[in-house]
Amino acid sequence: MKVPVWCYARISTLKQIDGFGIQRQINTINQFLQCVELDHRLPFTLDVDNVTQMVAEGKSAFREKNWNEKTKLGQYRKLVMDGVVKESVLITESIDRLTRLDPYKAVEILSGLINRGTTILEVDTGMTYSRYIPESLSVLTMQINRANGESKRKSIMMQKSHANRYGKVSKVRPRWFDVVEIDGIKQYRPNETAKAIQRMYNDYINGIGAAHIVRTYGNTDNGKAWTLVTVLRALSDKRVADDARYPPIIDKELYDSVQALKAATNKKGNTHQKNMLNIFSGMSRCPVCNQSIIVKRNSHGNLFTVCLGKRTNKTCEARSISYFALERPLLTAIRGLDFSEVYKHEDKNVLTLHDQWIQNERDIAAFRERLNKASRHEKFAILDELEIMNREQEELTIRLKSVDVPKDIQLTFDDDKLDLDTNYRIELNNRIKKLIQYINIVREDVTKSSYTIYCTIKYWTDVISHLVIIDVNIKRTGTGGTNTLTTTLRSVSSLNMDGTVSGNPDSDAWEYWKSFLDDLK
């Protein structure tokens, strides 16, 4: 009679995944399977074509977590105890891989399996524990006692090691730690500020800048608001990842990646996305939370839009949009617009804009002069103000240039370069930003397999606004197959300064413009 085989390997901490613990156990068990000779008292042979590998990472055998019904070992136990699997062989490198529980509890679990037809093979000792070998129970009990004692010994050693390392906990400590006493030992415990710093590192490496972190993190710095000074210090402080005096709260690899990104970002001229995934970068905006829309890749490699309100604060309910359903239809609509209609009237505020631009330049020069004389702490605050002023000045510059756009201007682009040339995408993005101030983009679901995208285009003047409506249909090819997107540019319409609507508005566009005008009243 041939019986099925289950092989079990386990490590108790996730840090061991980076080593060779799991793979070494699997290799040892596989080698054992190739040359094992069963005890002559066993009335079966191994079905080597029916082998199930069970691997548990980060499951403690001392606290019974590896026997939880959600684990593979727990599921195997249930099959045996329910009588689904009547005869089987369980192979493990050592009994302590299966359990380090209190001996009475451990004997109850393993003897329960053995009484219901499980034979346990221990690779390290070559022992067989089976109901067909009665004397094996006493050896199994000894091994269980040894495993439990080993765990207790390791626990005591870890406590002593922790006491040696952190026993003299200083009151002068990083603000992301509280000092607590556990089992008579004072320890550092990460607080809410630590959680904010961990989130900060993940956000920064994913493209969220320091200024945006300041605006969105609220009073999470020990009850205080973050400033540009405290954010930049936290993103540079080695104590979060690499200081023998304190337990790390940031992975060393993530810390090093953030430092490299900061160094690269500080290089002059690095002002665009690496691959310019979003051709509408700097313009696309979510009308629900009024925050910027960025483009990311999902686990399948497809591009999709997500607003910062949803991605960072988890507060916005706007749905994501397939970027491939947005880019070409919206660009096609923009290419068909006559911008001479948008900018044919001279901006009445041109002189005011010039005066404001000149005053900003004077203020920036004054701040830079103060920067040379400021103390180290004052410099960060001045840099914060300069960042805001430079951003305002950049917007003013773009608006002033837009006022002088030639009256016959029309946006054109090369389809082939758009797909292949990153530099061309950057250039096109800059050209569009000189014409368009922002684009509100929102999705409205129609059915489970279709939705409509509404894009409202706002220019640097108030002469006219445009509404672009795009229909998207999703078709799945085969069970578990890929989604095929079909897009239709349904409508392009405009609202003029006098309240009239032109273009080719359909019923949805008329309803949108009517609602827009009602909100203005």
Please provide a brief summary of the model.
With 521 residues, the protein is α/β, with parallel strands linked by helices. It has helices spanning 21-35, 72-81, 95-98, 103-115, 136-166, 192-205, 210-216, 228-234, 252-265, 308-311, 323-335, 339-342, 350-373, 376-403, 415-420, 422-435, 507-520; strands at residues 2-11, 45-57, 88-92, 118-122, 128-129, 177-182, 185-190, 284-285, 293-297, 303-307, 436-447, 450-459, 464-476, 483-496, 501-503.
Give a structural overview.
- By secondary structure, this protein is an alpha/beta fold.
- The protein folds into four domains: 2-159, Resolvase, N-terminal catalytic domain (Rossmann fold, 3-Layer(aba) Sandwich); 188-265; 284-343 and 409-520, no CATH class; 350-403.
- It is 43% helix and 21% strand.
- It is built from 17 helices and 15 strands.
- It has helices at 21-35, 72-81, 95-98, 103-115, 136-166, 192-205, 210-216, 228-234, 252-265, 308-311, 323-335, 339-342, 350-373, 376-403, 415-420, 422-435, 507-520, and strands at residues 2-11, 45-57, 88-92, 118-122, 128-129, 177-182, 185-190, 284-285, 293-297, 303-307, 436-447, 450-459, 464-476, 483-496, 501-503.
- The longest helix is centred in the first third of the chain and has 31 residues, at 136-166.
- The protein is elongated.
State the end-to-end CA separation: 86 Å
Q: How many DSSP helices?
A: 17
Radius of gyration: 33 Å
**Main pleated sheet:** 6 strands, mixed
Q: State the low-pLDDT regions, or none.
A: 14-20, 268-272
Bin the strand percentage.
15-25%
Classification by helices and strands: alpha/beta
Net shape: elongated
Spatial ordering of strands, largest sheet: 8-11-12-13-14-15
Helix content: 40-55%
Oligomeric state of shown chains: single chain
Mean pLDDT: 82
The beta-strand count equals 15
The count of domains is 4
